[in-house]
Write a structure and sequence with these properties.
The chain is α/β, with parallel strands linked by helices. The protein has helices at residues 24-35, 45-51, 83-92, 131-137, 147-158, 193-197, 205-217, 245-259, 271-276, 278-291, 307-312, 319-333, 358-373, 404-426, and strands at residues 2-12, 15-16, 21-22, 39-44, 62-69, 97-101, 114-115, 126-128, 172-176, 178-179, 201-202, 222-227, 263-266, 268-269, 296-303, 336-337, 340-341, 343-351, 380-385, 387-388, 437-442, 445-449. The chain folds into two domains: 2-137, 3-Layer(aba) Sandwich (Rossmann fold); 171-449, tm_1862 like domain (pyruvate-formate lyase- activating enzyme), CATH 3.80.30.20. The strands form seven sheets. Strands 1, 2, 4, 5, 6 and 8 form a six-stranded mixed beta sheet that branches. A four-stranded parallel beta sheet has the order 3-9-12-13. A four-stranded parallel beta sheet has the order 14-15-18-19. GO terms for molecular function: catalytic activity; iron-sulfur cluster binding.
Length: 457
């Protein structure tokens, strides 16, 4: 039997699958198919568009469409699949069993600032938000087995599709080290992490090691610990509220030994967790800076500096704790190679949440200016509008109207005043950015990026 697996790409709070990234989820789907003895041909949605393959999958037994965005952004290396493109693929390929899998099943939108549209794809034979539901559908026994006990095997098998990626070997593997959120109280009103992944779990080391060996066999040269809501919390004992620097050390050391990656980056870290567990967090950050590669970013889900917004949306901590975490990362991570820092914080800001007013923009700008004037460096600022998903606490609440003009004016001020100066601090004159991959041309000018957490522009 044979399956066509079409990667429409994902972007979640703690996972990215838009090229040059290949997500852990699409690899797990491939692993599930391989576990059932089904051969897999892997296509990206960009390949389907470029080669006009819309009706090319009727000879397959299965057509699996994977994708969905819960934290949409701007992408350089690929364009996520649209709802209409999935509909087109379903309608033009009548023969195979057609399955839609991924965050798109929980709700669809390509932009923030709106409610995610509930998905109804009538021509699909099955819809799943989670990979293990697909495994069950295909007849794999999952009862009585722990999440990572199952996923470890699927990840390991799924590594085999990596050489089929059209950008191979210039891709970066999004790697799973934990799932769920480590918070001990309620979760943020808007977040899909707990909705999609449940309670916090650190992945067992044996499973990680076996997948790393499979990635080595597949020729992987770049890896990011992106499938984690908080890298600093790997191995965290939630009941005792104890971080685990030794577990993190083993994780990074082993990855470095097995893969010897050209690019070794992380993604998310909780600034409040860092501020409240300072000693252990410092040890963990020192370990990361020892083993990671240059140009890395630890993304802080600040969302808002406005205390009213934070309170009404159950966003933990204070602006002061966030600034403390930014200081800690700057002190440890601003070690430079060729003029480029090894690790700096990034900030995510979210607008349109309950409690937001015009004053929210002023408060956020005040704190961004404060960070700049304190000579602290931010690698990048993401400014998004909230996307509301069914079954999140936010879906049951009324949202304030965001004044588009005020929002755009604020964004312009941040980009021209904060971003411009920050980027000059991150990449001063004389800094060398190595192994740049050309992405697109604008006139005579070619824009490129190295593999890694974030492009410069």
């Amino acid at each position: 039997m044979k399956a066509a697996l079409i990667d429409g790409y994902i972007d979640e709070p703690a996972a990215l699958g838009v090229p040059p990234y290949i997500s852990q989820r699409v690899r797990a789907i491939a692993g599930i198919l391989y576990a059932k003895g089904i051969d897999v041909d892997y296509f990206t949605i960009d390949t389907v568009r470029k080669k006009e393959l819309w009706n090319s999958f009727n000879a397959y037994d299965y057509l699996i469409l994977h994708g969905g965005l819960t934290t949409p952004g701007h992408y350089v290396g690929g364009t996520p699949a649209s709802f209409s493109e999935f509909e087109k693929l379903l309608s033009l390929n009548a023969n195979p069993t057609k399955i839609i899998e991924g965050p798109i099943v929980a709700g669809y939108s390509l932009k923030g600032g709106r409610k995610a549209r509930e998905v109804s794809l009538d021509e699909a034979d099955a819809l799943f938000t989670k990979e293990l539901d697909l495994a069950k559908y295909l007849g794999i026994s999952i009862e009585g087995k722990a999440y990572y006990e199952l996923m470890n095997e699927f990840y390991k098998l799924g590594a085999a599709i990596i050489p089929q990626h059209p950008r191979y070997p210039d891709i970066i593997v999004e790697f799973d080290i934990s799932s769920g959120c480590e918070r001990r109280d309620k979760f943020c009103s808007f977040c899909t992490e707990s909705l999609l992944y449940g309670n916090f779990k650190s992945r067992d080391f044996k499973g990680i090691e076996e997948e790393l060996q499979a990635l080595k066999t597949a020729g992987v040269k770049a890896i990011r610990f992106g499938r984690s809501a908080n890298v600093i919390a790997y191995g965290y004992d939630k009941e005792k509220d104890l971080p685990n620097p030794e577990a993190v050390k083993t994780l990074f050391q082993t990855t470095s030994v097995i893969l010897n990656p050209e690019v070794f980056h992380i993604d998310n870290g909780n600034p409040i967790f860092i501020a409240r567990h300072r000693k252990d967090a410092e040890k963990i950050l020192e370990c990361i800076v020892k083993y990671n590669t240059v140009g890395d970013t630890i993304s802080f889900g600040v969302e808002s500096f406005d205390p009213t917004v934070r309170h009404l949306n159950n966003i933990d901590g204070t602006a002061e704790e966030i600034i403390e975490a930014i200081k800690i990362v700057n002190e440890i991570g601003n070690v430079r190679i060729d003029g480029v820092p090894k690790l700096l914080p990034g900030i995510n800001l979210l607008y349109g949440l309950p409690g937001s007013t015009k004053k929210t923009f002023e408060i956020d700008f005040f704190f961004l200016k404060k960070i700049l004037e304190a000579d602290l460096i931010i690698r990048r600022l993401n400014i998004r509008q909230v996307m509301v998903f069914p079954n999140t606490p936010l879906s049951k609440r009324k949202l304030p109207k965001t004044n588009r003009g005020v929002f755009e004016k604020y964004k312009k001020s941040v980009r021209s005043i904060i971003d411009k100066e920050m980027i000059q601090k991150v990449f001063p004159v004389g800094a060398i950015v190595r192994k740049v991959i050309p992405e697109f041309k604008r006139g005579a000018l070619t824009f490129g990026r190295p593999l890694g957490t974030y492009p410069i522009l």
